[in-house]
Structure formats: structure tokens, C-alpha cells
């Protein structure tokens, strides 16, 4: 029986207009009423999950937030961090120096701040607005950074992300992990850290096995948790490869796919 549902946010819980549908909201509230724990699991920084979670109108004391593609797990009640992994400072500086040679935009997050060198870089303002973060512009990210980041985000035109991905990754293979969370985003996170590993940590902390877990997502950064969960759900618009790894194929995020999965898998148990 499912006791924990991990739900991706962008492309899954929210529709293509970045809105939460009433049907998705009601189905998640039904899950809570039936003793199921909810974990929003996103590539977003924690700050970008707070408002989305509030819109669900749940009892925050029962639920969790997984941010930065698994690098942080926090309680939804007070946002206190119960699990965290960060990139070592010297390694982060090396990555930022390397990335600076490509026509792409590296982005750092720190609490409520989004830190960039180019405020006109690809989707910089969109990322700041979506996560309700203030924009900080600095001359040189590698010289500026004095903390260990949870992740380094690289944004750019999808064709450029694909063109330069191998060259960006090459010096750091085996040191960090690279994952595409959108056609225009390449994310750099701690080695062997992903939504699946953090979902496993959360499940164990709740004395649950993966047999009690459902995970719902649409993109490649969701693949680890879809494969981990007893019931991995791929959204209707997901790539065929992601669908091939899921136990259930739902409707798209513009068709209330989260609600459809809950109704057709859990409510029918």
C-alpha cells in the first residue's frame, strides 16, 4: 500500500502555465486524508517550493520538500533541513571557471538569492521569478563564491546545451553528476545524489520501504525516483524512454496527470 508520494513540480504537478489545478490539489488532499505523506521533489531550490506547497493547503507537519534534484530534504512545516549534500568549494570554483568559456549562463542559488554574471542570460529572470528569488549580479562567479553550493545550474538555448554538454562534462566525469532537468537546463550536482537517493533516505527515515512509495515525474531528472519507487509514474508528455521505466503512464500535466495517477492507482487499491 502506498504511504509516500513524491511529486515533481514543473511539468508534473503544475501545468504548462505553471499553475496548480484544482483537480490535482483535491487529489493530493485526498491522499493526505488517507494517511499518505507528500514530498514535492524538484530541481528547484527550496525557496522555489514554498509557495507551491502552500497552495496545496496541507497539514505541513506531515510532509516534506526535496530540492536541488535531491541535494536537500527539508520538513515542509518549518523548512528545517534533514538531509543535505553540497559541492566542495574548490571543485565548484573549477567548474565555474570551466563553464565560463562556453556561451551559456551559469547560475548559483543561496537561500533567497539567485546569483549570476549575466542578468540577461537565458531564462535568468524566469528562474528568479518562478522561485521568488532576488537576482544578484556579480563580476565573476568563481571569484565570488565562498560557500559550497547544492548545485550549479547552467542555462542556455537547447541546441547550445546539447552542443556543449560533452565538453562541459569531460573534465569532471566521476566527480559530479550532470542531469538535464529541461531542454534548456543542465544541472551539476554532487556525485550519486539524485531524487531517487534522497527519496530512499526519506522513506527509510519514515520506516518505509520502496514498496510503499509512488513517484511521479516527467523528465530525466525524475528517472531515478521513478525507477526507485514501487510505483513509478511517467507523465503523458514524457519521453518514451522515461515511460519505458515507469509502471504507470498518466495523462499530461495539462490534463491533471497527478490526479489521474492518484485516482487510478491508489484510490483503486
Tell me what you see in this structure.
The structure is a single chain. With 269 residues, the protein is an alpha/beta fold. The protein contains ten helices and 14 strands. An eight-stranded mixed β-sheet has the order 5-4-3-2-1-12-13-14, with helices on both faces. The longest helix has 12 residues. The chain is globular, with a radius of gyration of 18 Å. The mean pLDDT is 97.
Strand content: 15-25%
Rg over alpha carbons: 18 Å
Unreliable stretches (pLDDT < 50, length at least 5) are none
Q: Structural class, please?
A: alpha/beta
Mean of residue pLDDT values? 97
| Cα-to-Cα separation, first versus last residue | 8 Å
The spatial strand order of the largest sheet comes to 5-4-3-2-1-12-13-14
- Total strands: the figure is 14
Number of helices: 10
Question: What does the overall shape look like?
Answer: globular
Overall helicity: 25-40%
Largest sheet: 8 strands, mixed
Q: What string gives the helices and strands in order?
A: EHEHEEEHEEHEHEHEEHEHEHEH
